[in-house]
Design goal:
By secondary structure, the protein is α/β, with parallel strands linked by helices. 28% of the residues lie in helices and 24% in strands. It has 10 helices and 16 strands. The strands form 4 sheets. Strands 6-8-9-7-11-12-15 form a 7-stranded mixed sheet. The chain has a 5-stranded antiparallel sheet with strand order 4-3-2-1-5, covered by helices on one side. The chain has a two-stranded antiparallel sheet with strand order 10-16. A hairpin with a 3-residue loop joins β8 and β9.
């Protein structure tokens, strides 16, 4: 490693050790925010290939064709967010988009940022945040150039990769509302805390990954699972969940012991809410790579994968989800997968079964996938493929059957846990 790259390496290690924040310089931020009024209504997400200090990487920025916002000018050392109109040549336009009020607000939030890190807070993070609202750098996932250089040396700091800096974190302290009267619900699941990342000890918990296209109602299912509005929900074409989120709770599980007999006990559960596939902004392959990266960093074992769809199941949805299923070795761990055809509350029983059959067929899952459980002397069949519907403000009696089916399918014990493949791979 040459002297120049050694300097970069030393600075990068220091940037991992300090708090994950943008550290916006107030005076610089105020000046740059005023300059944002110069941008036109049509913007571009741009990048070029750089080679400096012995390092090859992509430099990203946002531009209207004249004005530019970027985190550093392609230099790696002592970078700050810059807003300027210096001409730029020989670059690639990744996509074009509109300067909406939401986009402008995101530009304001990153103005004046000074705490640069190639691995955690770089130009691609800032440019993609402005465009998508997600803190993502694809040079730090899969076989990305920067990941190959830094990942194996980051230790515990890998937990911070592609997570929001402190100033950009979505609020998690908003008031959480109970969906149904707890007296009416068999309260087997309790939400306890939102976590930014999982630790080694969490591998002993019961880990559930929720996966599906944007608009399929993943967040609604998680809220119903906990009987609490822990996730923001929405009906737009853009994913409400902008980075992988972790919810810790506990659930009451039935145990049979030769010494103590039949009894219930509380067990820890982690529910992993993922970015929606195929929204109007991020591509399916990009979302898949981001989800896989976060899962590999945070988990060694998965107990359940819940795949959620609703409405028409498009080809890109199927392709992306099947790739994820292949990565998690579905053929060996079929009993660990739950399929939910969601938003079925207005459908007849025949329509529910037809849609669920279509979903099972597209993903290569046996339609009659059931688990037999003995509880309190009763032999119960728990269905792992479900057509469910949870309309807003519905009384519990109206959704009780679907609610019980959902909780049962998500928490029924499994014989084998899915090991997470930690090796790097490329999505073709």
């Amino acid at each position: 490693m040459g002297t120049s790259l050694s300097t970069v390496w030393d600075g990068e290690q220091t940037s991992w050790a300090i708090p994950h924040k943008l550290n916006c310089i107030q005076e610089l931020q105020n000046t740059q925010i005023r300059l944002l009024d110069n941008f036109k209504t049509k913007l571009m997400l741009c990048f070029n290939n750089e080679s400096k200090h012995g390092l090859k990487y992509e430099h990203w920025w946002v531009s209207d064709g004249k004005w530019i916002l970027e985190f550093g000018g392609g230099n790696i050392l002592d970078n700050k967010v810059l807003v300027h109109c210096n001409p730029r040549e020989n670059f690639i336009i990744d996509c074009e988009f509109d300067m909406t009020q939401e986009v402008k607000e995101r530009m304001k939030k990153v103005c004046g940022a000074s705490n640069y890190s190639l691995a955690l807070r770089n130009c691609e993070h800032v440019a993609r945040y402005i465009r998508y609202g997600s803190w993502l750098c694809f040079q730090m996932v899969g076989d990305g150039l920067l990941k190959g250089l830094f990942f194996d040396h980051m230790g515990m700091h890998t937990k911070v990769i592609n997570t929001f800096p402190a100033e950009l974190k979505p609020p998690t302290d908003q008031k959480k509302l109970t969906l149904y009267d707890p007296k009416s619900v068999n309260a087997r699941v309790n939400w306890e805390i939102y976590k930014e990342a999982l630790q080694e000890a969490d591998n002993a918990a019961y880990n559930i990954v929720i996966l599906g296209p944007t608009g399929s109602g993943k967040s609604t299912l998680i809220n119903n699972f906990f009987n609490l509005t822990v996730c923001k929900t929405g009906g737009s074409a853009e994913s409400v969940t902008r980075q992988v989120m972790f919810h810790e709770g506990s659930y009451r599980t039935f145990r049979k012991n030769n010494d103590t007999g039949e009894h219930y006990e509380q067990s820890q559960v982690n529910v992993i809410d993922t970015i929606g596939f195929c929204d109007s902004l991020l591509s399916a392959s990009d979302v898949l790579e981001a989800i896989k990266s976060s899962v590999k960093i945070n988990l060694a074992k998965i107990d359940k994968v819940v795949i959620v769809c609703a409405g028409r199941i498009e080809g890109p949805h199927v392709q992306a989800i099947r790739q994820f299923m292949t990565w998690l070795q579905f053929s060996k761990y079929k009993e660990n997968f739950v399929l939910v055809y969601n938003k079925s509350d207005l459908l007849s029983e025949q329509q529910k079964m037809e849609n669920l059959l279509t979903m099972c067929s597209k993903f290569g899952v046996p339609m009659m996938n059931t688990y037999h459980s003995v509880e309190n002397g009763r032999n119960l069949a728990i269905h792992m493929n479900l057509a469910l519907g949870f309309p807003s403000n519905a009384p519990y009696e109206e959704v009780k059957k679907d609610h019980v089916s959902l909780v049962d399918a998500m928490t029924v014990p499994v014989m084998k846990r899915i090991p997470v493949d930690k090796t790097r791979c490329i999505i073709l």
